[in-house]
Amino acid sequence: MVYEWAPRLSPSRVVDLVIDVYTEQYSPRSISRYRPEERIVLMLWGPPGVGKTDSVKKASKTIASILGRELVECSQITPKLFEKIIGDPSKYFVFCDIKLERYEYSDLIGLPNFRETGEGIHYTDWYPPKWVAVLGLPGVAGILFFDELTNAAPDAVKCAMEAIYEKKLGDIVFSDYVMIIGAGNPPEHSSVARNLPEPLMTRLAHLWVEVPVEEWIRWARENDVSREVIEYISENPGKLYIPWLNAVPRTWSILGKALRSERLSKWKETLSQALVGINPYEEKTLKEEVSEVIEAVDRLSLMFSRARSLKARIEVLWKIIKIVVEEMSLEYMEAAISRISRMLTETEQLFDLLYTLYSESCLGGDDEKCSLLLRFSEKIINANITIKEW
């Protein structure tokens, strides 16, 4: 698939690229150097929640500032503001975020308008949607962002193709200063995603958007995300994006902002599980318990090293084995096993100890101790610790 070879860009790099492409190819100051078919149309690929929409919106804000225009979002255009934009389109930069999967053909080109001439000739044109009419005003600048392009109905995709190919929808031709950007999800990240038509694919410049942990943490610190969530992701960077658990940058951000509220912080475990499928606080408790077990192993290891008789060492070793088998999960075995490994390799009585443990339990008919020893051995094997390493 195309996104397998598409360049990998972070959201901040996407912002920079959108600004540069617009400034070079769509700005009123430079557009004359490019024919319409020569201008780049970006396609942002990536799973949900990685910041594709936010990147384009942020770039729009910067471009509007560069051009010295007022930024307006299509969803905010009231009838009064619409009249103001019509009065002087050159003052405005319009950002239209169109979630294409929610649209049908008529939503994009408008409603039919039946007309009749004085000579009795009948014909039909269209009443365009407000945002289409705005983008068609001469001199207006902006970005038309077709989000969820891969999830859209075939008729809606055809309309998007018309917009990308011909810079128009229905009877409305867009201003020369309007840049179109698409975004979509690969099929493995969306159950409703479809492959785009090949002619459309060859018209687009494909990019894969991914969020480096460092960038997300920097963003989170600047955007009032809870310190607890930031610290958790810092310590567990691999959990920033686990889509099958619903853990993506967007949901971590929602959780992190909610937990800054005193009223909602008492629900932190419930909200964590509900939003990202992970309960960091339960994990923290578990780690603290495991830490206590490892400390106990360390104390017993010190007792082991100071024990002078074989009998004393065997007693201590049985206590260690019992702690590891009964109180420690495999996830945290390596830390404890590495300590035990060092402890045993430092004694010259290793083989005597191992044989004595085996003789006391399995050969001696002590089923409980034999079971304990076998389970301990199984954990050692599962933790990839071999007898040679001992």
Order of strands in the sheet with most strands: 1-11-2-10-7-4-3
Helix content: 40-55%
Please tally the β strands and state the result: 11
Largest sheet: 7 strands, parallel
Number of domains: 3
Spell out the CATH superfamily of the largest domain. P-loop containing nucleotide triphosphate hydrolases
Principal-axes shape call: elongated
Termini gap: 48 Å
Textual characterization of the structure:
The structure is a single chain. With 390 residues, this protein is of the alpha/beta class. Helix content is 52%, strand content 14%. The strands form three sheets. It has a seven-stranded parallel sheet with strand order 1-11-2-10-7-4-3, with helices on both faces. Strands 5-6 form a two-stranded antiparallel ribbon. It has a two-stranded antiparallel ribbon with strand order 8-9.
How is this structure best summarized?
The chain is of the alpha/beta class and 390 residues long.
Q: Which secondary structure elements does this structure contain, and how are they paired or packed?
A:
Blueprint: H1 2-5, E1 8-9, H2 11-25, E2 42-45, H3 52-67, E3 70-73, H4 79-87, E4 92-99, H5 105-109, E5 111-116, E6 122-127, H6 130-135, E7 141-147, H7 154-166, E8 168-169, E9 172-173, E10 177-184, H8 198-201, E11 205-209, H9 213-222, H10 227-235, H11 249-258, H12 262-265, H13 268-276, H14 280-306, H15 310-327, H16 333-345, H17 350-363, H18 367-382
Parallel strand pairs: 1-11, 2-10, 2-11, 3-4, 4-7, 7-10
Antiparallel strand pairs: 5-6, 8-9
